[in-house]
Amino acid sequence: QVQLVESGGGLVQAGGSLRLSCAASGIIFSSYTMAWYRQAPGKERELVARISSGGSTYYANSVQGRVTISRDNAKNTLYLQMNSLKPEDTAMYCCAAKLRVDTRYDYWGQGTQVTVSS
Does 102 score more than 90 pLDDT? Predict the structure, then answer.
C-alpha cells in the first residue's frame, strides 16, 4: 500500500518560512520523480516544484528563488523549504510521485494547508 503523508504546513506571517515534508512508503522512493503541487480555493492546481530521481529540479516561476525542493532517499522523504512567503502562497500543498517521466503522477498525498497572513 502506497502512502504519501505531508506535514509541516501551518499559519505564518508574510515574509516567514515553512518547511514541508512528505513521507513516502510502499514505493521504491529513490526511483520516483517527486513533486509538490498546490491548490488555492477557486484556482486550478499548479505545479510548485519537481525533483527527478537523479536530483534534477524544476521550479514554477511564481516560487523561483524562494523555495527549494529536496529529497532524502535514505529517509524516503521529500521536502519543500519555503522562504519569503507571500499571501498568494496560501494553498493546500500536496506531494506526488511518478515512476516514469512521461506519465501523469501515480500517487498523491492528502495535503497540508499553508496559510500566509499579510
Answer: no
